[in-house]
Amino acid sequence: MAEGGSAATGTPAAGSGASTATRGAPGHQVVDLRSDTVTVPTAAMRAAMANAEVGDDVYAEDPTVNRLQALVAEMTGFEAGLFVSSGTLGNQIAIAVHVRPGSEVVCTEGAHIYEYEPGSMALIASALPRLVPTVRGVPAPADVEAAIHDSIHQTPTGLVALENTHNRAGGTVVPLATQQTVQEVARRHGLPVHLDGARAFNAAAALGVTIADVCRGFDSVSVCLSKGLGAPVGCVLLGSREFIGTAHRYRKMLGGGMRQAGILAAAGIVAVTDMPALLARDHERARRLAGALAGLSGVTVDLESVQTNIVYFQVEDAHGFVRACASEGVRLNAMGPSTVRAVTHHQVDDDGLDRAIDALVTVHERRSAPTAVGAPGGAA
């Protein structure tokens, strides 16, 4: 989904950083599972932000931004990084740097750069998407190769893009072997490869590998700081020094220069340093939530797709279900007429998840209860 959007009622919570819970119905705390973007900064992040050394980042003179960029580049195995305000901006800058106007970007069905970055590649880079099918977010390399065009009679391919984890497929993980094979396909055709790594740290946690392993072999990667890692804002775009030099110009062109951005980058440093160790717990809680939902009649969950911190499930009247859950203090996202998404994160602990499961079961039972057609002595 577009991470900033919501189909649930209510507004994001504000707080000291200890929890995203807010007051709901009397005696209830709200458990916000709409996205892992709803977290508020931790105490450590707030302290780092308050004490951040800053400068003018448009001139590349903010020492905290420079430190974040260098740190994430070192962690991921790239020469350089660029701090940008969002994953969408990072992805779209990458596309604009890589492709010539009038080119196609080969990406997977349901890819964020296609579904939830509304028409940006067409407007900014004059590029078109070419979708390939997937099985739970994982494309077959042969399908990627079949989508590549170099005929004068067709739109030429300019870039191959993968997404790991794959949001729309349920937070599924693309195996490293598949990534490598797709990269080899692209290289045979002289094409660059970009990774939308909005939740690449989740992929690393699920695979039991380093973030550098997940990012290896790509020409560029965008890594979000504001999802499972819990920072309030930001993404780091990664690539060669030459690539990042051009990306810096595009960031300026698109209004992305943030001047004394070290206040935000300070939280990002805490995010990439302290938060990856917590992601496995989010994954465990997502599996527990999925298991509880799978036990309810009339609710469908693809348990094999619950590989990280995202749970998609099918119910009748998803929007009505989400509204009913909100009245019980649980915020979810309706992704379509019958599809609901829940995302676990570090500010929903085991107790919060238990409350959420209890509320979802209550709503399901209430909606499943037989409805009386008429009353005794009255008209049917």
Descriptive notes:
By secondary structure, the protein is an alpha/beta fold. It folds into two domains: 31-41 and 277-368, Aspartate Aminotransferase, domain 1 (Alpha-Beta Complex), CATH 3.90.1150; 43-274, Type I PLP-dependent aspartate aminotransferase-like (Major domain) (Aspartate Aminotransferase, domain 2, 3-Layer(aba) Sandwich), CATH 3.40.640. The chain has helices spanning 43-50, 63-76, 87-98, 112-115, 120-124, 141-146, 176-188, 200-207, 211-215, 241-253, 262-274, 279-294, 318-327, 350-368; strands at residues 31-32, 80-84, 104-108, 128-132, 134-135, 138-139, 157-163, 193-197, 220-224, 235-239, 300-301, 310-314, 330-331, 333-334, 339-343. Strands 2-10-9-8-7-3-4 form a seven-stranded mixed beta sheet, sandwiched between helices. A four-stranded antiparallel beta sheet has the order 11-12-15-14, covered by helices on one side. The chain has a two-stranded parallel ribbon with strand order 1-13. The N and C termini lie far apart (44 Å). Residues 4-27 and 372-380 have low confidence and may be disordered.
